[in-house]
Inverse folding.
């Protein structure tokens, strides 16, 4: 949840200066949009005049305004009336509403956990196998997205419920290109190169990394992203999936190995600006500041796509700071896994117009309209990357499309007491010098205590 | 409704309701139920007098009973039941589970540490400040400044001291005064004070000592002034030095007050929550019982263990409770 | 004699100095917060608050103007960009306004103190750059060199002390700031005032009954009040929250007012009873002889006479409810965050703005300003109350 919040904060930061919403934000034929897909949809769509689609979700302004802009095109194509309501306490509200039988047609979930709970309670309508196979074919790392949207229904059978719309990336390393130039460094393409570069920077008497886990009561969460990213790069995705559901225990040697690999970065005295001792206490919002210090305090910072919101004022992403994909090991042959999060749509109250709307969301056009307004990334492989509002987002979109595996932030999928509890504190203990095995044992213990 | 308006309405309704209750209940008692007239006038007056105290007491007793007495018993009940099992009686299972948790014992250890250090230090500093400021012209201003932290919330104090304990990377300027001094005195690298296990407890305690010293000072200063001049003068004539006068003459005479100050601060310490919650949230081995309880109740949603830990706090307060009641009764006789 | 007098005066000096040291030690933390709240982000990050009164030495990364827009072709065929680094940065409007003084500078992040002002840096292949102490620069090179982005210049400069009210403007008066304190301030006020007034009234009647009325069980009740004084309110959280939920109050102002009333009563009754019982018996007995009822005695005589005790409890309760975090979190604040109070807002900020000391310091100071004013104006009553009720 925490990260979702930051993601939206970042989206907010990126979107400053948007034009006010009009009836149709982009005139037909304009821009780098796939108008053909829109026209084809409009031609094929049934006439839905007089029908209504209600969507509710956690997006507030400005994301809500952008989504409203998209709804305008749907209204034009079908004649239906579509409305979106955003609420800060969406997650509490939707459950109450659904149980009271007054739910909207479509709910936008900030993470799969709640959608799974509602599917289990029989409060969601399956999207059907056609939709599932469409996602599998048209989304990069499609089967990952199908799996993330597939939950057990009230009878315990798996069905496809969640359609991902807007995702974010965590597997990014941020750096200052001009500092790389001054020092003559190249952007590493593999994990081996990344480690070699880190060692080279240490040898030249500088610190390669800025790492900070501080986040008040949530201290520790940045480390969980590290461990998840590393696990995806050292083990097949099945291990990750088993770990998230605790079929593979937390203290399994493969998991402990990932924690220790993280330790090679965070507990390595020379690797971290200020020394390994400062990792646990440096606030994660402060931690990238070393990149921009004079002289530079560090050269690289691994963090999700929201972090530019915390860069110094006036930092231009793409010029003053840029990112590269947190690379995978050349030797492991696990492809290019990507860690991230995203919002997904589920149908809470089916209708003809609702089905039409879900079909509308499959057009590249629907994604491009959102992309062009900023704060939106999509794994849809049919979109035109030029439609992205900024080169930065286009770059991130490209990483998403290049992904062979996509995995959702594991700590968000685990039970709260683990993913937002003992995993965090355990990581703090670990960077503080505790033994990885002991830490993993303790986390597993707290998981056992839940069952 | 606008909260400000709602607040205003509450004040009016609350205050008006209270006044109306007291006024009309007395009126009814005097005019309707037992009018001091007619054949039974004398008996009626006596009856009215017997009932009136309870009219005066009723709202307070109801509120106290509901908000403080009932929860004690309800908490005892909750601590031996399990909500997930529909509130079934589970005996000592919650306690047993709690006693198995490292975090609980860490909290108990830290609470004991707090109990040893904070009342002692706050009383000692308070005594020192009281003794010193009583003898100088601008003593009242000095007192008022030392007393000031009493007005600052624990949360505000937490921010103030987080700034003091702040640590920045080695090669940039320190903005936390403690690290600045530490480096000036020849320390090699800045220390993140709040993450050094065991010792970080003391850095949290300093916050409470800082707040409570003023309280101790005010009470002890009044007590010092109450010491009869003759006893001090007699000691001076006998050739006692200032230290002897202080420790041998003055301190014994205010021993009773020192105990009161000590126990009062002890109770504050047992309830300490905000400071730990805001500064470390119990991480890095700084857990205390009150925060442990909050964690259990509102994060893990485990009412059984949460209530059990609340009972432990209650248990630790009980000796003071008994002692206070004993003293209060002694005074009334 | 002289000797003794001399010793005495030196002792007095020691006394004064040690009190001064103690006072400084005690106000130092608060002063740090206050000073920090008037400093800019950059100042707070680059030096400790105690350095605020002295010129600060800062390392900054500045950049020349964009060559594609501002380069000029010189007679010798080279291109030139010139101007002032601080003006380009937007820190000042004209070179005359520059207050900082550059001591060393450099053009590579690996060598930021390569040159002193007035030096001409050789950037290779004939490209050169000159920077003066006030930030004036001249950058010369061929077509390819003077293109793309502006040249980065790393400067180490000394700037004079400076204070700002901007932090307060942001925290209090910026309607777009979702993390502002304005709403929380009014919420805190809304919690505090009823929660202070209502218990006083209820407690005053009870205290009078316990002090001046004879009835069986009085001693027992007083003992019970003393016992309840120390009951940790932690015990009350869950039972009362369930109670509030079951009778439909849920989370909200009503619940928090009731809770504060309940938790404040033991001290209120105890303080007021101790005070009332010490009032002269004659007054009350005279009034009784004159035929006054207890109700009249209470409202006409006891209440006005008890004003100091009422005031001291009011201050206690005000400080306690204003500064409270736990009760508000449990009984008031829901997930919408509409009813957040200042203490909670600050804890949130500690989480989300952990390193932004200008925001933290300003927000914290906004929340402690009111209690400090109350404290300094009403200290007399506070002390009296403490002396009367030092059992809590």
């Amino acid at each position: 949840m925490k990260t979702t919040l930051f993601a939206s904060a970042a989206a907010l930061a990126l979107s400053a200066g948007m034009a006010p919403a009009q009836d149709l934000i982009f005139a037909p034929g304009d821009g780098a949009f796939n108008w053909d897909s829109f026209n084809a949809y409009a031609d094929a769509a049934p006439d839905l005049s007089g029908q209504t689609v209600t969507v509710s979700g956690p997006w507030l302004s400005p994301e809500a305004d952008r989504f409203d802009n998209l709804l305008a095109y749907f209204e034009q194509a079908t004649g239906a009336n579509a409305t979106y309501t955003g609420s800060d306490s969406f997650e509490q509200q939707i459950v109450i509403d659904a149980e009271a039988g007054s739910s909207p047609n479509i709910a936008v979930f900030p993470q799969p956990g709640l959608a799974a709970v509602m599917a289990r309670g029989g409060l969601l309508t399956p999207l059907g196998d056609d939709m599932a196979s469409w996602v599998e074919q048209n989304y990069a790392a499609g089967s990952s997205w199908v799996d993330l949207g597939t939950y057990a229904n009230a009878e315990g059978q798996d069905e496809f419920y969640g359609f991902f719309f807007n995702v974010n990336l965590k597997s990014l390393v941020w750096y200052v290109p001009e500092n790389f130039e001054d020092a003559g460094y190249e952007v590493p393409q593999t994990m081996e190169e990344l480690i070699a570069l880190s060692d080279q920077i240490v040898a030249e008497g500088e610190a390669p990394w800025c790492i900070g886990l501080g986040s008040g009561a949530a201290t520790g969460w940045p480390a969980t992203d590290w461990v998840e990213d590393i696990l995806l790069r050292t083990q097949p995705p099945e291990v990750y999936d088993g770990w998230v559901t605790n079929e593979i225990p937390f203290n399994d040697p493969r998991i402990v190995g990932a924690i220790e690999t993280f330790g090679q970065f965070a507990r390595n005295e020379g690797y971290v600006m200020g020394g390994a001792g400062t990792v646990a206490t440096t606030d994660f919002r402060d931690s990238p500041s070393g990149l921009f210090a004079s002289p530079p305090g560090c050269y690289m910072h691994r963090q999700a796509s929201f972090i530019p919101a915390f860069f110094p004022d006036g930092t231009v992403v793409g010029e003053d700071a840029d990112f590269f994909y947190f690379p995978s090991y050349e030797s492991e042959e696990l492809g290019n896994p990507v860690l991230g999060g995203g919002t997904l749509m589920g149908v809470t109250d089916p209708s003809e117009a609702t089905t039409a709307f879900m079909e509308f969301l499959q057009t590249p056009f629907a994604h491009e309209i959102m992309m062009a307004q900023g704060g939106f990334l999509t794994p849809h492989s049919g979109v035109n990357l030029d439609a992205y509002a900024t080169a930065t987002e286009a770059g991130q979109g490209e990483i998403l499309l290049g992904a062979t595996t996509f995995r959702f932030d594991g700590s968000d999928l685990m039970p709260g007491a683990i993913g937002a509890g003992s995993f965090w504190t355990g990581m703090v203990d670990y960077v503080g010098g505790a033994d990885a095995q002991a830490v993993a044992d303790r986390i597993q213990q707290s998981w056992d205590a839940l069952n | 409704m606008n909260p400000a308006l709602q607040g205003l309405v509450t004040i009016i309704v609350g205050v008006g309701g209270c006044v109306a209750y007291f006024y009309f209940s007395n009126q009814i008692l005097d005019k309707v139920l037992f009018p001091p007239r007619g054949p039974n006038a004398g008996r009626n007056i006596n009856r009215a007098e017997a009932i009136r105290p309870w009219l005066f007491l009723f709202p307070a007793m109801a509120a106290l009973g509901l908000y403080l007495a009932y929860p004690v018993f309800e908490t005892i009940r909750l601590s031996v039941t399990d909500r997930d099992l529909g509130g079934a009686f589970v005996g000592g299972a919650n306690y047993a589970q709690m006693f198995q948790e490292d975090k609980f014992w860490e909290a108990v250890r830290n609470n004991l540490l707090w109990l040893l250090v904070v009342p002692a230090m706050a009383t000692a500093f308070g005594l020192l400040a009281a003794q010193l400021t009583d003898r100088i012209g601008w003593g009242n201003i000095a007192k008022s400044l030392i007393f000031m932290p009493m007005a600052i919330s624990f949360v505000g104090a937490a921010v103030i001291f987080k700034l003091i304990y702040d640590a920045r990377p080695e090669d940039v300027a320190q903005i936390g005064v403690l690290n600045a001094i530490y480096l000036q005195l020849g320390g090699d690298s800045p220390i993140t004070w709040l993450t050094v296990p065991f010792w970080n407890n003391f850095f949290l305690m300093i916050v409470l000592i800082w707040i409570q010293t003023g309280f101790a000072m005010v009470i002890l200063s009044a007590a010092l002034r109450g010491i009869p001049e003759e006893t001090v003068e007699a000691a001076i004539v006998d050739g006692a030095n200032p230290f002897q006068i202080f420790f041998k003459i003055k301190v014994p005479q205010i021993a009773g007050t020192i105990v009161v100050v000590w126990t009062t601060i002890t109770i504050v310490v047992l309830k300490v929550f905000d400071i730990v919650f805001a500064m470390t949230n119990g991480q890095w081995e700084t857990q205390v019982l009150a925060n442990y309880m909050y964690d259990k109740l509102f994060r893990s949603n485990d009412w059984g263990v949460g209530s059990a830990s609340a009972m432990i706090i209650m248990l630790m307060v009980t000796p003071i409770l008994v002692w206070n009641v004993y003293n209060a009764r002694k005074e009334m006789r | 004699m002289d000797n003794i007098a001399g010793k005495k005066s030196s002792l007095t000096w020691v006394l004064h100095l040690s009190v001064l040291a103690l006072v400084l030690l005690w106000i130092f933390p608060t002063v740090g917060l206050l000073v920090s709240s008037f400093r800019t982000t950059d100042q707070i990050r680059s030096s400790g608050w105690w350095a605020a009164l002295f010129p600060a030495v800062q390392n900054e990364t500045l950049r020349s103007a964009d060559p594609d827009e501002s380069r000029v072709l010189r007679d010798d065929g080279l291109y030139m960009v010139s101007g002032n680094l601080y003006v380009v940065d937007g820190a000042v409007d004209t070179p005359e306004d520059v207050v900082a003084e550059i001591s060393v500078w450099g053009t590579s992040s690996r060598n930021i103190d390569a040159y002193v002002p007035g030096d001409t840096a050789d950037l290779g292949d004939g490209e050169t750059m000159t920077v003066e102490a006030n930030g004036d620069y001249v950058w010369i090179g061929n077509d390819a060199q003077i293109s793309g982005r502006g040249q980065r210049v790393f400067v180490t400069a000394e700037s004079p002390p400076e204070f700002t009210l901007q932090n307060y403007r942001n925290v209090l008066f910026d309607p777009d700031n979702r993390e502002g304190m304005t709403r929380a301030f009014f919420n805190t006020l809304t919690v505090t005032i009823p929660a202070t007034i209502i218990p006083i009234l209820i407690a005053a009647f009870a205290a009078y009954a316990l002090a001046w009325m004879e009835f069986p069980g009085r001693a027992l009740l007083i003992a019970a009040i003393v016992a309840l004084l120390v009951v940790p309110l932690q015990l009350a959280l869950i039972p009362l929250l369930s109670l509030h939920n079951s009778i439909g109050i849920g989370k909200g102002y009503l619940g928090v007012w009731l809770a504060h009333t309940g938790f404040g009563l033991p001290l209120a009754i105890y303080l007021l009873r101790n005070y009332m019982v010490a009032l002269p018996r004659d007054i009350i007995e005279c009034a009784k002889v004159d035929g006054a009822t207890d109700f009249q005695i209470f409202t006409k005589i006891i209440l006005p006479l008890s004003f100091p005790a009422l005031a001291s409890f009011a201050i206690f309760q005000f400080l306690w409810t204003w500064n409270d975090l736990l009760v508000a979190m449990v009984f008031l604040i829901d997930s919408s965050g509409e009813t957040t109070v200042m203490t909670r807002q600050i804890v949130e900020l500690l989480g989300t703005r952990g390193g932004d000391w200008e925001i933290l310091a300003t927000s914290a100071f906004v929340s402690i300003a009111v209690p400090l004013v109350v404290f300094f104006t009403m200290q007399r009553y506070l002390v009296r109350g403490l002396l009367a009720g030092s059992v809590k």
